[in-house]
Amino acid sequence: MKYLVSFFMLVASVAQAQQPTWKGKFEQLDQLLPTPNEYRTGSGSPGPKYWQQRADYVINAELNDENQSITGSETITYYNNSPDVLKYLWVQLDQNINTKNSLSQLTDQNTVIDSVTTLDLGSSLRLHEFDGGYKIKSVADAAGKALPYVINETMMRVDLPQPLKPGQQLVFSIGWSFNINNRMHDMTPNDGRSGMEYFPEDGNYLYIIAQWFPRLCVYDDVVGWQNKQFLGQGEFTLEFGNYTVNLTVPADHIVAATGMVQNPKDVLTVEQQQRFEQAKTSFDKPVMIVTQAEAVVKEKTKATAKKTWKFYAENVRDFAFASSRKFIWDAQAVKVGEGKTPLAMSYYPKEGNPLWEKESTKAIRACLLTYSKFSIEYPYPQATSVHSASLGMEYPMICFNGARPNKDGTYSDRTKWGLVGVVIHEVGHNFYPMIISNDERQWTWMDEGVNTFVQYLTQVEHYPDMPQRRGPASQIVPYMKSPQEFQRPLMVNSETVVRRNFGAEQYAKCATALNILRETVMGPELFDKAFKEYAQRWAFKHPKPADFFRTMEDASAVDLDWFWRGWFYTTDYTDQSLDNVKWYRIRKPATDVENRNKNVKGAEAMGGGAGADKPADFSKGPEMFTVLPTDDRFYGDFRARIDDKAMISKLENKNFYEVTLSNKGGLIMPVVIEWTYKDGSKEIERIPAEIWRTNETKVTKVFVKDKEVVSVVLDPKKETADISEEDNVFPRVAKPSKFDELKKKN
Known about the structure:
This protein is an alpha+beta fold. Helix content is 25%, strand content 26%. The protein is built from 18 helices and 31 strands. A seven-stranded mixed β-sheet has the order 4-7-2-1-13-17-15. A six-stranded mixed β-sheet has the order 16-19-20-21-23-22, sandwiched between helices. Helix 7 links the parallel strand 20 and strand 21 (382-387). The radius of gyration is 32 Å and the shape is elongated.
């Protein structure tokens, strides 16, 4: 079929038909994503045959405060909900990262520099004598018969006497012990997640204990056993289950843990029990369950007797705890939904006050409220923040956080905001990945980056005066400008990320991308509904990146493949350039075909003709072009006709601005233009990213304005992470010469 096109449309399209440099940035992601199936659908939701395994634990353990060690035994009930027959199970032995000559230690990189502190040297070269790692005492079936096992670094394979068929369950036990690491000796990012802190002033220890018991690896429909070795940077992938945990500790210790204490009458004083009950209905402020005065008294004596704290946690993927006689403890109830009033609780030594008493529980409350709004209502009975030096680490219902005031109790705004930020971030991990349970060992951005994004939303909502470090587009620019050889795409294994860029990349870049997606690409309404749909679909399940990508598109009807490709699969960056702006007005129209031919140059100018000079500003006034009545030949079969005079009259006093843009950084992004008019008013115009779909490097577009424009600016609110502002302005701002700069200094 043939179509007749008007001459004006033809020449106007010439600008759009400039020879494109096409790299497939708008190509669909289908060939990169797994094929949908009965387990995971093309819409991004769990399929009709989605399954996941389950592991229930009964753990008995004792903390030895004399030699800083833990001895324990666990009984695991493992449910094979998969369609596969399993001949062996894989168990994670994370403490083995602390063994001498572990894979992590052997492959860590370090260099000699001109001067180095003893702390850094001892930590990086592992100069402290420490007998780390698990001592596995037994692995046995329900009848007590030994099961054969093989330990490979941080993984242990347990061979089964009979294959475990689909629908069957297996009960087996493991006995173990390990020495608790001194966190001050392990200042590397790999090893500092848990351990002990010693306080020489009073001779006491504060224990934060995690990765402390052998834990089942995930077996799923995508990779089978997720048994990648724990090298320190990539975190944990775990199955959900119910936990019954009995922790024997010194009698004067206070214990914080995943779940809820089941025997408060055995471990708390009568007065502390009453305060604990009071906190469950205190919504306006925290209740002090253990006061600072009470904690200080206990610091001075060390009990020789023991007490056992009993905890129960339902449908969680891990268990962690903290124990010390130094703990102050406060708690407050939070309303997060119909009938849901979890406790926000904080545990901290006196060294954390007065900062922690003022800010920790308040930040927990803010986190639970905002995260519940953007994902799912918080389902657990409590959320706890525990203070220990120089840390930020998360587990179900409990997290360990740093930010400590000076010895005299004073603290800077930086320390205050540091505490608020780390508490919100780590408590927020209850949602990502403790509930929406992605594979942390493989895809760090799915928990750290997504969580950092919702952390940013929380801080903006509850702390409007707080400086925002990760989330705003402008804050990621220094990283995006950094050398490309040190950058990695978000879609890489955690262990391959350059350590110095780990936070900027896996946390901040992802958070920034999602913030841009919400504010600039999709709009909050569409984004929020799709994002909440993802959380609801995958709560208490194991989502993969494709499930997130597909859900966001499925729930919004926005094609985002170009966005995922650019932000997650490449190291491209935003660098849009406002190459040129031409100003036109209509000259008096010609009325016959002969005059039309004479005025082709004017029509070409409207279409971006190559012969026109490139003006530096608008000082020479507008160029003129001709609008011609449409000849009957260009109407084709249409019988109706345009009112030429009315059309020309309508456009006679308009201003036409032809804008030429180039994409220097490769990252496809929307175009945000601010027009400043002669009368001082401003207007922001937003052009979707699809403007680049046929030419990914250069585009030209004409805008019709009633008022005269005096300047044009790209990305005026710095919302696209453009790394160069100098080429975003027209007319260009002249750079001062070296002579001018020298003159200004003098």
